[in-house]
Design brief:
Helices cover 29% and strands 25% of the residues. Strand 8, helix 4 and strand 9 (115-118) form a beta-alpha-beta unit. It is of the alpha/beta class and 182 residues long. The strands form five sheets. It has a five-stranded mixed β-sheet with strand order 9-8-7-12-13. It has helices at residues 49-53, 69-80, 82-87, 100-110, 123-128, 167-178; strands spanning 7-8, 11-12, 20-21, 35-36, 38-40, 46-48, 58-62, 91-96, 115-118, 131-132, 138-139, 141-146, 152-158. The protein has one domain: Glutaredoxin. It is globular. Monomer. Pfam families: AhpC-TSA. This is thioredoxin-dependent peroxiredoxin. GO terms for molecular function: thioredoxin peroxidase activity. Residues 28-179 form the Thioredoxin domain.
Length: 182
């Protein structure tokens, strides 16, 4: 997939639908091209979605914030099941509006094997997951699986930030989305 074929973040062009421009969350659907983005990880290194997809499918995990009880439980459950996600060839990226420094502390303290991306201006968050009032104006808790072809293969957005997709349930959904045998 060439860069011109990507949906640009916050300018989602889907055949048969008008592009959504601006800072309003686009209504992304399974089969849409994933909006391209580049964000720094917990070490300040740039991570570009299209480059990550060269390695295989990417699971984008949007969450309200580092060190909060529900977010910590959620990401720790994904950490504990990381080998199962890796068996599917899925690369996991956590995304919140926290700072690089806070992500670095969170990752070090909780020993996450996946990178945490900082989106302090919430541009990618708004483009994909949207902002929730019940999460204090922070990211909706959401999972987006982007296939190697750059298309969204699975989407789950929680409207109530107290809930999250458990690792077992998420693994099953990803396995089905990727067409992997049980």
């Amino acid at each position: 997939m060439t860069p011109g074929q990507w949906g640009a973040c916050c300018t989602i062009a889907t055949p048969g639908r008008r592009p959504n421009k601006g800072r309003v969350m686009a209504k992304l659907e399974v089969g849409d091209l994933a909006p391209e983005f580049e964000l720094p990880d917990e070490r300040g290194r740039a991570v570009r979605l299209s480059q990550e997809l060269e390695k295989g499918p990417v699971l984008l995990v949007f969450y309200p914030g580092d060190f909060s009880p529900v977010c910590t439980r959620q990401l720790c459950s994904y950490r504990d099941s990381y080998d199962r996600f890796a068996e599917l060839g899925v690369n996991l990226l956590g995304i919140s509006d926290d700072t690089i420094a806070k992500h670095r502390r969170f990752k070090e303290e909780r020993h996450f094997p996946f990178r945490l991306l900082a989106d302090p201006r919430r541009e990618v968050i708004e483009c994909y997951a949207g902002i929730g009032l019940l999460s204090g104006g922070r990211a909706h808790r959401a999972n987006f699986l982007v296939g190697k072809d750059g298309r969204l293969a699975y989407i789950h957005v929680e409207k109530v930030s107290l809930f999250h997709r458990g690792a077992d349930e998420l693994y099953g959904a990803l396995r089905r989305a990727l067409g992997s045998p049980s």
